[in-house]
Amino acid sequence: AQSVAQPEDQVNVAEGNPLTVKCTYSVSGNPYLFWYVQYPNRGLQFLLKYITGDNLVKGSYGFEAEFNKSQTSFHLKKPSALVSDSALYFCAVRDEGGATNKLIFGTGTLLAVQP
Amino acid sequence: EAQVTQNPRYLITVTGKKLTVTCSQNMNHEYMSWYRQDPGLGLRQIYYSMNVEVTDKGDVPEGYKVSRKEKRNFPLILESPSPNQTSLYFCASSLYTSGGGTQYFGPGTRLLVL
Q: What is the Cα–Cα distance from B23 to B5, expressed in whole angstroms?
């Protein structure tokens, strides 16, 4: 069965430091992987996705993610965190062979960036 | 502006009182879907629609209904809401029904059932 794990409920980082939000996945076929961000009282905003090709994917707001097939991971990264990056981050996967276009979401990671 | 809209944004109701949450997209997307978000569970799919008049159950469809009479609209209906349907609901749409198409989400509807 398809699944996504975000092992950290919360990540704390100081402003200016690099940040990583972890995600691992399990699918039967090739994965389509997504990161979304949810700011307080806002909807989910699309950050980036991996479909195929280069393992390093660049997205919005300076975020990037690295696809690692051998480790079945898709960690979200940013070289220098901003206080305004504080939000809830969701990793999601869609099975290439899936018939429903359904996204399977992780449980979310709360990123807190301290000034 | 390309967007997914939902109404209402906030709703407090009582057990058993039928309600509808509307969802509309202006991007001519074929695929639309409803998710609910609960703490510690992430988002789970309730229903989805591949196109007009084509709908199907997601992972947690119990207590919900949907319809897709027009391409742009995909309302979520709770015929007899119960407290366990208190949640944050998101509508989403994407251009394609398969492949790596991005799903775009609405702003969410926070529902409290007393």
A: 6
Which of B73, B106, B69 minimizes the C-alpha distance to B88? B106
Residues A29-60: tens digit of each pLDDT: 888 999 999 998 788 999 999 988 899 999 99
Which residue of B40, B42, B107 is in closest CB contact with A42?
A: B107
What pLDDT digit, counting tens, does each position of B7-59 carry?
999 999 999 999 999 999 999 999 999 999 999 899 999 999 999 999 999 99
Q: Nearest-CA neighbor of A60 among A78, A43, A86, A42? A: A78
CA B95 to CA B17: how far, in whole Å?
A: 34
Strands A31-38 and A87-95: antiparallel
* Cβ-based contacts of B34 with chain A (< 8 Å): none
Q: Does residue B56 belong to the interface with chain A, where contact is any CB pair within 8 Å?
A: yes
Q: Is A31 in a helix, a strand, or coil?
A: strand
Token pair of B25 as six digits:
């997209």
